[in-house]
Design goal:
8 strands; 287 residues; 3 domains
Length: 287
C-alpha cells in the first residue's frame, strides 16, 4: 500500500493500519500531503483489514505543520486548493467508520493541528510535543474547523487564548486543557498507543463501529436526539447472535461471580472463542 503515496508510509498488521507522515523538510500540510491523505481515506474506508488507524510522524521535531502559505500569496494555488479534495477532507476523516488515533511527537500547527481535531483520539509525548494555531498573527484565522472543533474540546475561553494568542502550547498544557487525551513520557507513548490500538482492533467490529457513531453523535446532536440515536444503534447489537454468544461465554467463565468480577476485563478478553478476539488469541500464542 505504501507504494501509492509520496508523503506517507503505510503498514498494516493485526487490524491496525499505521500511517507515518514523512514529508520533509517539515511535514508541510500542502497539496502533496493532502492528495496522499485523500488517497489514504479511500484506501482504508472500506478495507476489512483496517480496524483502527494510527497516525505518527517520521520526524521527531514535526508531526504536522501548517498549511502551505502560498494559498494566500498565490491566487492560483488557492483556486487549485478549492477545486481539490481539501475542502471536504477533514469532514470525511471525522466520519470515517474506523477509529483514528494520533501518536504525537514534535510540533503541530495550523492546518496540521486542525487535522488532529478531526481524529478520534490524540496522545502526545511529554516535553516532545507542542501545539499551536498561529493564523491570526498572519491576518487570517483557523478556518479548517479550528474555530468550531477546538472550543468544543477545550471551551470558549481557552480556544480564544489559543487562537488569538497565537502561542505554542506544550503537551502538559494541551492535556490539561483537553486538547489531547493524554501526555505520556516519550519512552512510554509508543507502547501505550500501540497496545490501545491492538485492543480496539481485537474488539467486535460491529460494536466498535456502532459505539464510534454513538459517541460522535454526542458532539453533534442535542441530548434527546443523541439518546435516541444511541438506542437506535444499540438495539441491533443487543439482540444479535454475536452479543448473545459473547455474554453466554462470559457468564460461563465466571462473570457475575465475585471472583470473575474482580478481573472482568481480562475475563471478557479471554473467555470467548479465538475468533471473537483474534488479537488476544495471537498474543496468547506468542507467550
Amino acid at each position: 500500500m505504501s507504494d501509492r503515496y509520496t508523503a506517507l508510509s503505510v503498514d498494516s498488521a493485526r487490524g491496525v493500519t499505521t500511517v507515518t507522515i514523512d514529508h520533509p523538510p517539515v511535514n508541510l500540510f500542502d497539496e502533496i500531503l493532502i492528495a496522499d491523505l485523500d488517497r489514504l481515506y479511500h484506501d482504508i474506508r472500506d478495507d476489512p483489514g483496517t480496524r483502527v488507524v494510527v497516525f505518527t510522524s517520521a520526524d521527531p521535531e514535526f508531526f504536522l505543520s501548517h498549511g502551505d502559505m502560498r494559498l494566500v500569496t498565490d491566487p492560483e494555488a488557492l483556486a487549485a486548493y478549492a477545486r481539490g479534495p481539501a475542502p471536504t477532507l477533514f469532514a470525511r476523516y471525522r466520519e470515517l467508520s474506523r477509529p483514528t488515533i494520533a501518536k504525537i511527537a514534535g510540533r503541530v500547527r495550523g492546518g496540521g493541528a486542525e487535522f488532529l481535531l478531526s481524529l478520534d483520539m490524540r496522545y502526545a509525548a511529554l516535553d516532545h510535543a507542542w501545539f499551536g494555531q498561529p493564523e491570526v498573527g498572519l491576518g487570517i484565522f483557523p478556518g479548517g474547523s479550528g474555530t468550531q472543533l477546538l472550543p468544543r474540546l477545550i471551551g470558549r475561553s481557552r480556544a480564544l487564548e489559543v487562537v488569538l494568542g497565537g502561542g505554542l502550547h506544550d503537551a502538559r498544557t494541551a492535556e490539561r486543557y483537553g486538547w489531547i487525551d493524554r501526555a505520556l513520557p516519550a519512552a512510554e507513548l509508543g507502547e501505550f498507543v500501540d497496545d490501545l490500538a491492538r485492543r480496539i482492533a481485537g474488539q467486535p467490529p460491529a460494536a466498535v463501529a456502532a459505539a464510534l457513531r454513538a459517541v460522535r453523535a454526542a458532539a453533534e446532536l442535542p441530548l434527546a436526539e443523541g439518546l435516541a440515536r444511541e438506542t437506535e444503534l444499540l438495539l441491533p447489537l443487543f439482540t444479535g447472535d454475536d452479543a448473545r454468544q459473547r455474554f453466554s461465554a462470559a457468564l460461563a467463565a465466571g462473570a457475575q461471580t465475585r471472583a470473575g468480577e474482580l478481573e472482568l476485563e481480562s475475563l471478557i478478553e479471554h473467555c470467548g472463542p479465538a475468533a471473537f478476539n483474534p488479537v488476544g488469541a495471537e498474543r496468547d500464542r506468542a507467550r
